[in-house]
Design brief:
582 residues; Protein FAR1-RELATED SEQUENCE like; seven-stranded mixed β-sheet; elongated; five-stranded antiparallel β-sheet; single chain; alpha+beta
Length: 582
């Protein structure tokens, strides 16, 4: 502990620096301080243990803020045994200890704080104190949750100013303007979705963990290379049917403002009623599908069998009804209960061969990938969550623009790979032409009918994926057609570049925002946080385990009357006996 030793004449920049140094030394050397006198010009303290002669006195130098040690008496005879907690290890001290760590890692947990303090100083502090220090540290670095809600109108104004055409609206409830909902859609995102993305929208939400909780709702899509493309997002105080109806209403308005006509969309979700009803009402001409990742995870949790998950995915990707029935029969052989369970989800909502819309091969939502963008920021105030998404969008747009400049193919890499495989397979096929548009393609195993006019093949791959299958490629090459001209436009490199053509501009720092109440901005409303706050303590975990449901319940036994169903303390045998005697 050489760095915590003091000598007479030692100087410190000011009284605060000296107080911090003496506090640090007391904690590090495991002794308690009893402060006798402490003000702006002098400091006098001794060891709090009775009989220990150690004491220190420091004063301020004339005409300077410098503090210097005047006297240092005795050595510790107390044994320095202050290990289980320390009076000087206050919440403020812990904040100063963890501040830099919190900047590097928002998810620096209270138990890790306890571990690091124990390791470095050898003292144990209460968990609650570490938790409070983390909360206070996050507020000091990123601002308080209350300030976040208060600045929301100004933040939305900055989004609209710096990114013209963007939508950023905050909605309040009640006479006191309590936060209810926030919707954000950058113009560059809306433009990129309408002009370059695959016409699929994933919907989902993730719980926020700040002081006032809330849920982040989001709508994402896929670019030409299958990459995640966030289109719009919002924050609601409570996720329910009403909030999903509101979110999809705002999403519809955002698309309508930037499109001459509403595109034919396919929505992917976990199938919850609120989302399904809202999509049906706001986008009546669209198709809806269950996210296969969510469905496969559900059957895995329900039946604890990885074989079932594998068969369900194979059934979902089957391109013919015969192949689909075969996979489902295999699934039933493995578990008849699982086959019965899956019947509650109509195949028309998750199986490629039965789906009425077009999924272009995307059976799973990419919402979880988007949620990982803000996973570490979930405990921060609402503005920091939006800023994290904004910063990530700027970085991704720029990185993908640069990446696509090195592409010299017609299609994006993943689609180009599929096309090359189809061309290689097509080289060994025999093609018989029926008329201008219809062909019969013969391979070693089968015969397929291709219609290049309707972009159809009897194998159904062309219709399901939007890229000519090997049979279609063979037919197109035989009549000297350009195979790339028969591929959906959304898979081209040109579409990919158009997706990221518009720029997302930076937003100025808080210091440049107009705050509610400023004389120049009296019309800006003051948004207060929701009334609902995160309850104290660790969140309750509600888990339903299949094994627990089937496990035989423990039967209690009374040691007084030897009967089952109650304990000795609740036994009524003596009372009944007394009544009978009476």
């Amino acid at each position: 502990m050489e760095e915590h030793t003091f000598v007479v004449g030692q100087e410190f920049p000011d009284v605060k620096a000296f107080r911090n140094a003496i506090k640090e030394a007391a904690i590090a050397q495991h002794f308690e301080l009893r402060i006798i006198k402490s003000d702006l010009i002098r400091y006098f303290a001794k060891c709090a243990t009775e009989g220990c002669p150690w004491r220190i006195r420091a004063v301020k130098l004339p005409n300077a803020p410098t503090f210097t040690i005047r006297s240092l008496e005795g050595t510790h005879t107390c044994g320095k045994n202050a290990q289980n907690g320390h009076h000087q290890a206050s919440v403020d001290w812990i904040v100063s200890f963890i501040e830099e760590r919190l900047r590097d890692n928002i998810n620096y947990k209270p138990k890790d704080i306890l571990h690091d303090i124990q390791k470095q100083y050898g003292i144990t502090i209460p968990y609650k104190q570490a938790w409070r220090a983390k909360e206070r540290g996050l507020a000091a670095i990123y601002g308080s949750s209350e300030e976040g809600y208060c600045l929301l109108p100004s933040f939305c104004d900055q989004i609209r100013r710096t990114n013209p055409g963007s939508i950023a609206e905050v909605f309040t409830t009640g006479a006191d303007n309590r936060f209810q909902r926030l919707f954000v859609s950058f113009y560059a995102s809306t433009y990129g979705f309408l002009n370059g993305c695959i016409p699929i929208v994933s919907l989902g939400g993730i719980q926020l963990k700040s002081k006032y909780l809330g849920t982040l709702l989001s709508a994402t899509s896929f670019d030409a290379d299958g990459g995640l493309f966030p289109v719009a997002f919002g924050v609601v105080d409570v996720e329910n049917d009403e909030s999903w109806m509101w979110f999809l209403s705002e999403f519809h308005k955002a698309l309508e403002m930037n499109a001459e006509s509403m595109p034919q969309l396919t929505f992917l979700s976990d199938g919850q009623k609120g989302i399904v009803d809202a999509v049906r009402r706001k986008f009546p001409n669209s198709s809806q599908a269950f996210c296969m990742r969510h469905l496969s995870e559900s059957i895995g949790k329900e039946f604890k069998n990885s074989r079932l998950i594998h068969l369900l995915w194979k059934a979902a990707y089957a391109t013919t009804t015969i192949a689909f029935k075969e996979r489902m029969a295999e699934l039933e052989d493995v578990s008849s209960e699982a086959a019965k369970w899956i019947q509650q989800f109509p195949p028309s909502h998750w199986a490629l061969v039965h789906f009425e819309g077009t999924q272009y091969g995307h059976l799973a939502s990419n919402i979880e990938e988007f949620n990982r963008w803000i996973l570490e920021a979930r405990e921060l105030p609402i503005i920091q969550v939006i800023e994290r998404i904004h910063s990530k969008l700027i970085a991704e747009f720029e990185a993908r623009r640069v990446k696509s400049n090195s592409w010299f193919t017609v299609l994006a890499p993943s689609a180009e790979k599929r096309m090359i495989e189809a061309i290689n397979h097509a080289s060994v096929y025999q093609v018989l032409r029926s008329d201008e548009v219809e062909f019969e393609v013969l391979s070693a195993e089968r015969s397929d009918i291709v219609n290049i006019g309707t972009h159809c093949c009897s194998c159904r791959d062309w219709q399901l994926y939007g890229i000519p299958c090997s049979h279609a490629v063979a037919a197109l090459i035989s009549c000297r057609k350009d195979v790339y001209a028969f591929t959906e436009k959304c898979f081209t490199v040109a579409s990919y570049r158009e997706t990221y053509a518009a720029e997302i501009h930076p937003i100025p720092g808080k210091i440049e925002w107009r705050k509610p109440g400023d004389s120049a901005d009296n019309d800006t409303q003051v948004v207060r946080p929701p009334k609902f706050r995160r309850p104290p303590g660790r969140p309750e975990k509600k888990r339903i385990c299949v094994e627990d449901l089937n496990r035989e319940k423990h039967t209690v036994h009374c040691s007084r009357c030897n009967q089952t169903g109650h304990y000795k303390t609740t036994c009524k045998a003596e009372i009944m006996k007394s009544i009978e005697q009476f």
